[in-house]
């Protein structure tokens, strides 16, 4: 995530909200235990309610269970509200990065870096 010492809220730079791409790696435990107990769906539902994803896809991460989700946050201070439910409920590793649409990239003012 980018940090700007002179800006208290990074969303001030990009508008009202920032989109984050969040990649999640679930360890085998406790997820496998939840599956065997029949509680995995309810646990996932609780977490999804807490993080309020725009979209989420569950997938294989190459060595086990994983997910990729897109979330909107108003400030960097909201990131723990996305990551903590995943880590606390599943012991998940969570990796995130800021994302932007093509329109946001086009309006970013990249012209200032042009050389004459």
Short key terms for the protein model shown above:
116 residues; alpha+beta; 4-stranded antiparallel beta sheet; elongated
Topology (elements, then pairings):
Blueprint lengths: L10 H4 L3 E9 L1 H10 L2 H12 L3 E6 L4 E9 L5 H12 L2 E7 L2 H5 L10
Antiparallel strand pairs: 1-3, 1-4, 2-3
Helix pairs in contact: 3-4
Largest sheet: 4 strands, antiparallel
Mean pLDDT: 85
Output the radius of gyration. Answer: 17 Å
Number of strands: 4
Structure write-up:
The protein is an alpha+beta fold. The protein has a domain at 28-101. Helix content is 37%, strand content 27%. It is built from five helices and four strands. Strands 2-3-1-4 form a four-stranded antiparallel β-sheet. A hairpin with a 4-residue loop joins strand 2 and strand 3 (65-73). The longest helix is centred in the middle third of the chain and has 12 residues, at 40-51. It is elongated and about 65 Å long. The model is unreliable at 1-14 (pLDDT under 50).
Short synopsis of the structure:
This protein has 116 residues and is of the alpha+beta class. 37% of the residues lie in helices and 27% in strands.
């Amino acid at each position: 995530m980018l940090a700007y010492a002179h800006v208290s809220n990074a969303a001030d730079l990009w508008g009202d909200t920032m989109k984050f791409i969040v990649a999640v790696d679930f360890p085998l435990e406790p997820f496998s235990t939840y599956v065997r107990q029949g509680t995995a769906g309810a646990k996932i539902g609780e977490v999804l309610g807490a993080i309020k994803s725009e979209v989420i896809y569950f997938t294989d991460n190459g060595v086990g269970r994983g997910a990729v989700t897109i979330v909107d946050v108003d400030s960097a201070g909201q990131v723990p509200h996305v990551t903590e439910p995943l880590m606390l409920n599943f012991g998940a590793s969570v990796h995130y990065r800021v994302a932007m649409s093509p329109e946001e990239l086009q309006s970013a003012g990249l012209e200032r870096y042009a050389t004459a």
